[in-house]
Each structure stands twice: as C-alpha cells, then as structure tokens.
Amino acid sequence: MAKRAHEDPGLAAGVEDKEARREAKRLKKEKAANRAETAKNAIVGNGEKHDDAPENDTLSKEERRALKRAKKEAAKVASADDAAIATPTATENTDAANKAARKASKAAEKAAKKATKTDATDGIVSNGESSTVSRHAGAEYVEDAGLRSLPQSEIDTFIKDKRLAIEDTQGQQLRPIIDFKYLPLDDDQRKPFAGFKAPTPIQAACWPYLLAGRDLVGVAETGSGKTLAFGVPCLHHIAKLSKANRKSIKACIVTCVYGGVSKDEQRKLLNGTHVVVATPGRLNDFIQEGSIDLSSVQYVVLDEADRMLDTGFEQEVRKIISTTPATGRQTLMFTATWPPSVRELADTFMSKPVKVTIGDNASGELRANTRIVQEVEVMTEQQDKQPRLIQLLKQYQSGKNKQDRILVFCLYKKEATRIEEFIRRRGFNVAGIHGDLNQHKRTESLEAFKAGTVPILVATDVAARGLDIPAVKLVINVTFPLTVEDYVHRIGRTGRAGQDGKAITFFTDAEKGLAGALINVLKAAGQPVPEELMKYGTTVKKKGHDAYGAFYKDTTEMKKATKITFD
C-alpha cells in the first residue's frame, strides 16, 4: 500500500486525508471526555451539590423531573470516556445534557425567587403597583387602586359606623368595597347598580373575600342585602370562566326548582342552566333520579341556613353537599342567627371560612332589624282581634297611604282563608298566600301584591322568609307564630334595603310561654316593652329539638359508657 502510494501521488493524498480524519476523531473524543467530566462534577460528582445547583425544595414537580433527566443524561455521557471509540453522537449527547442542566438550574432559580416573594399560593401579595392581590383556590381579586388609596381612617370609620365584625383565621385584611365603582366589573355588569346609592354593609364586607374565592359565613339581620352579597360574585365567577368551560356564554341562565309544581317542566329547564336556585327537598329529588349532576359544581350557597335546620332540612342539606366536589368548591352560608347547629354545619362543609357579622351581635343571637318600629298589643280576648285589625287597615289605608302595602300574618291556613274573606267583605282589595293554594294561585297573589295592584296580602309563615317585597309599610301579626325566630323573620318583610318599617303584633294568653323571648327581642332592638307583656314574666323556655321536642337529650352531653368485662 505504501509502495502504491509512493508511485501514485493521488493515492498518497488520500492516505494523508484518512490520517487527518483519525486525528480529528481523537481530538473530539478528548473534548467529549472533558465535557462529560465537567458535567459530572457539576451535577452528580461524588454525591456533592455544586454551588450553582438549585435546592430541590424550591423546585416544582416539573422542574425536579427536568433536573433528574439532566443528571441521567450527564451520567451516561460521563461513562463514555471508558468507551473504545468516541463518535459525534457522544458530543451531541454531552451538549444536550449540559443544556438541560442549565435550563433546569434557571427554572429552579426562578421558582426560588417566586417562593421568596410569597410563601404561599393563598393569601395577599403585592403586585408592585400599590394595590393588593388576593388569591385562593384559583380565584384572584385585585383590590381597586382607588379603594387602596383611601386613608385607613376612612375605612375604620366605615367599619365602626356600620358595626362590622370580620373574623378570618387566615389573617387576610381586605378592605370593604364601600362604593360600587370599586367593584371589578365591566360597564355592562355595573349598570344594574345605577339606582343604588352604595353597597349595604354585608355586601361591602363580603365581596372582597368572595371574589378572592374564600369560603364565607355571613350573619346579618333580615333585609340587609344578603342576596346581592353572594349573587354578584357568582355572576362574576361565571363571566371569568375560560372559553372552554363557559362555552361562549352570552347570558346567564338561572333555573328555579321547588315543590308544588310539575317536575317535568322543571326537568326540561335544568338542561343547559348555569345557576340552580332550589329548595332542599325538590333538589334532592332531582339528584336521586339523576336529572341533575352536582359533581362539578364550583359555587354553593346556603341561604337562610338557620331556617333550613329549624324546619328539619339538615339531612337533606347534608345529602346535597355530599354530591358536590370535596375540593375546589367555594361554599357560602348566610344566616340571621348563629346557633350551634349552624356552626356545626359550617365546620363540616367549609374550609377555613371568613365570618362576617353585621351589628353588635358577634355571638349571632337572634336580633330584629333596628329600623323596624315594633308595637305589641296584649289582648285578653281572641274576638278582639278582628275589629282591631279593621281599625288598623282603615288607619293605614286612607288618604295618600291608600295604596301602601300591608302584610297580614296568620298562623294556620284555615285562619288565613277566614281572615282574607273577612277583610274582603269589609271592602278592602286583598289577596292570600298559604299552603292550601296551588303554586299558580300563590304566584299570582304574590305578583299582584308586589306590583301594588293588590295592597293587602294575608299569609301564613310560607311568606315569612326569603321574599323580598318592595315597599311593605306595615306588618300585622294577627296570631303570634310558634317561635320568636319566625316572629323576627315575619316583621323582617318590612324595613328592607335601609328603609324604615313598622310591625304591630297581637299577643294573647295563648302565647304567654313565648313572652320572655319576645321581651328580649324588643329590648335588644331598643323597642318599648308593654307592661301587660311584662306580667307574663321574662323566663325564656329552652328550645326543643326539631324532631323530638323537649324530650330530646343531646348524646354529646351524656356520660361516657363504661365497659364491663365478665370473667
């Protein structure tokens, strides 16, 4: 071969070129070995951390995986120096390993800086623009710059004057949204508030926490604006859904389901709805038959929670909530009182809730609206009620007040029917609403009363809660309810949304067992207590169990059983 190369100059040139390629391969092999050794020392050498290596504790799961892959790649390349032949592929692997290691290191540094800025995903952090950002469970509330710029003294004065109490175990301190302009809404969403002067205290205090995704308990008197307190964040949540989740929502579809009407029509309406407003019984019916699936519900509100428990719906409520997601669900509870039964329900289904209380009532005891003037007329004879009722109707339905709305409450359905007919025969325009009427007739009567075409409505306690009827000037209790809680909710149909109201109650010997509780309600609201009522005494009868009455004994207070073993 050498002789032929000597004789043939072209062949000699080829041999020299081959020698050059061998030398180039040798140099590449050395270079690859050096790089591999560097990577090995930087990442996996002797089990020690390099000065630039990130701490695993600050890395996310994805970043730790990337770093692990880089280590494996570097280890493979480091072992290449033991191979007989080095190829260009080894060099490429080494470069890839180093690149991956550098990428993982940068990602770790970024994560560490982020962790230093805020040590939790939930809570309040600064966004560097003199405003506050609160994040929780995927929701984010950015405090308006104008609200943030208000002096703290103005916020403190608002909290004191409105008798606000906000308790949060998380330690968040979000300013109440004291003006509608500070709500994070677009112009279209803000239009409905044009006729309102300012948010009510319960709305102002609740909105920041609810917009931030927190669970919340609101304790406030009747007519305080609780519906808008949870309604606005609900609609805001829907508007903020991703395009994939909301499927191009252009209108919020709300469906109301309740008993007394055909299920078929309601079942059809449930298809494609965004918000379901329901009574516990009918909602459970639809859940059991498979007409509604709550497994992906994100926003749950229990309104009038104390009333639900008082009327024996606790098990129904527990069944409903058990069908909703255990995590990722925002749960709200609004109530006029804060008894142990409601607290237990909140502890069971809510995650570190914020508690907002309106008024000097941190314990959540039963309180009446202080804007309602309460008058109690003690009567010795039952037959005195009807003549006195007509006198009051003539007094408050005359002259310029002829169209003022008056709500008359009775205890029983038959009594309501009798009183309605009695008033009608005396020449008054009146309608009725009670359990013996079908749903269509009830709705018709209620709508006529709301519109003012019928100024007097006779009702049982079916209308005592949850109905927002504007401009009810007077509530007359012909027969006192079975509980003082129902009394507070009855008179709460007047004096709503910051307006004044009046309630007149007929009280007889038949209700003397409730005199003590009524006296406490009157005193707490700063109302006069008649001497005739004081004669019945101030003793308050202990409330019995919903199902077992006075014979119920709480098993949590019973002596622990003793185990006996026989030889």
From TrEMBL:
Keywords: ATP-binding, Helicase, Hydrolase, Nucleotide-binding, Nucleus, Ribosome biogenesis, rRNA processing. Residues 207-356 form the Helicase ATP-binding domain. Its main location: nucleus. Residues 1-22, 47-65, 106-120 have a biased composition (Basic and acidic residues). It catalyses: ATP + H2O = ADP + phosphate + H(+). InterPro entries: DEAD/DEAH_box_helicase_dom (IPR011545), DEAD/DEAH_RhlB (IPR044742), Helicase_ATP-bd (IPR014001), Helicase_C-like (IPR001650), P-loop_NTPase (IPR027417), RNA-helicase_DEAD-box_CS (IPR000629). Its EC number is 3.6.4.13. It is found in: Nucleus, Nucleolus. CDD domains: DEADc, SF2_C_DEAD. Residues 76-99 have a biased composition (Low complexity). It comes from the Eukaryota. One of its GO terms (biological process) is endonucleolytic cleavage in ITS1 upstream of 5.8S rRNA from tricistronic rRNA transcript (SSU-rRNA, 5.8S rRNA, LSU-rRNA). Residues 388-537 form the Helicase C-terminal domain. Residues 1-131 are annotated as: Disordered. Pfam families: DEAD, Helicase_C. It is an enzyme of class 3 (hydrolase). One of its GO terms (molecular function) is RNA helicase activity. GO terms for cellular component: nucleolus; preribosome, large subunit precursor. Gene3D superfamilies: P-loop containing nucleotide triphosphate hydrolases. Belongs to the DEAD box helicase family. DDX5/DBP2 subfamily. PANTHER family: ATP-DEPENDENT RNA HELICASE DBP3. ATP-dependent RNA helicase required for 60S ribosomal subunit synthesis. Involved in efficient pre-rRNA processing, predominantly at site A3, which is necessary for the normal formation of 25S and 5.8S rRNAs. This is RNA helicase. It comes from Baudoinia panamericana (strain UAMH 10762). The lineage of its organism: Eukaryota, Fungi, Dikarya, Ascomycota, Pezizomycotina.
